[in-house]
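Aim 2 progress update. The chain analyzed this quarter is reproduced below.
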Amino acid sequence: MEKQSGHIHDGGAWAAILAGGIGCASIGILVDLAEASKTFSAKLALSSSVGDLSGKTTYGIACWLAAWAILHLLWRRRDLAAPGRIAAVTVVLLIIAMIAAFPPFFGLFSNG
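Predicted structure tokens:
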């Protein structure tokens, strides 16, 4: 957040909030994709002792950081007119993440 004339813009904070939702949803989606494809799962295994979880978390964190950096650069000097929409989108992304990473759900995609 940048302070100008005693005013603090809220865009940077909303960028962090939305980026958190994007990062969580990306991990959930990676869980489902890894469950659906053994080939994709094997490519996610950045560490043989950890398995595909190492890639799911690494790439999920990369998505979060990239989203945060981009959104922060775009919004850091702005006051967002509709923060309620951003909050709603973030909640939807968090719900998607929870459903996608829920074992009975990702088990539907299991190919073995």
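The mean pLDDT is 91. Residues 11-36 form the longest helix (26 residues). These observations will guide the mutagenesis experiments scheduled for the next reporting period.
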